[in-house]
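To the structural biology subgroup,

Please find below the input and predicted structure for HTH-type transcriptional regulator MsmR, which we are adding to the shared reference set this quarter. The sequence is reproduced verbatim from the submission form. If anyone notices a discrepancy with their own records, reply to this email rather than editing the shared folder directly, so we keep one authoritative version.
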Amino acid sequence: MATIKQIASEAGVSPATVSRVLNNDLSLSVSEETRSRIFSIAEQLQYKPARLKRMKQDQLLSTLKIGLVMWSTLEDEHSDPYFGAIRRGIETRCEELGIGIDKVVRGVLKTEHTPLTELDGLIVVGSVDDQEINRLYPHKERVIYVNHDETPDDCDSVQLNFAQAMKEVLRHLYELGHADIGFIGGSSNPVVQREDGKHEDQRTAIFAELQQKRGIYNPALMYLADWSSNGGYETMVRMLDDGHRPSACFVASDPMAVGALRALHERGIQVPEDMAVIGFDDIEVSAFLTPPLTTVRVHTELMGQAAVQLLLERVEGREVTSHITINTKLIVRESSGSSR
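Predicted structure (tokenized):
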């Protein structure tokens, strides 16, 4: 694509002169012959001013029609803000670019949903059945999966780096001297398929793998719960009632960790003196719990923004599949303790 410098070189004038001529600067003292030569060369080189390109892009964005498929319901978002934050990232970026979200589908997809073939692209958040997605929207090259572990090879995706997150969590606990570590995870999403056909949260699988490598894996300390504060509370109660009181426990979401901390408080178990606790998400309330919760900070809104960027690249003609992995950060607070 032609630039002002190329036109200047062809015309034998400075780039500043070319810029002022193309912008119809009447205060510029230049001959009509030079002015005509600059316009002629610009036309031959098919030069398009940046503002014209921006106008064309803005026009394209304003006419785009995209759809959003959410695994989570509104009730799910109220109890756990994880997926809601991803959705906000998508909506905020679309608003900034002037893109309209024409269709939103929530929950488990049913066959009675009307096909979405009129859309220019689709963003899928959570582990929605990709076969149902293919039925509703057959243009795979314009489907972006977010937080979906079973992403088809020919589709773009935005994923969280769960392996990095779990390694940091366990490294922190190992450094504090913990070996007897409990786990409270979610029973669904994001999921991986196990050999027995059941689904398993990535954090569950990675935690077990890392503990096995260290030779301290104890399946009796692995518990699953609903993704809610009540789920975390009931599961911590169940762990204690089973006679298990590990020196530390990782809880797969902060809302669940809130419930787990309450259960420990009711049983008179001190955190972190009797049991260290680490959560996941770094929701706003985490820093104000008693004690403040050590947790994994997840850049969920960035995941949503990245999905919009991938979709725009597809609309503009990118053909190569792209996968983005977003890293996390361990935020150390009092609930895990600084030493043992």
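Summary notes: The CA atoms of residues 185 and 252 lie 5 Å apart. The chain is about 40% helix and 20% strand.

Regards,
Lab coordination
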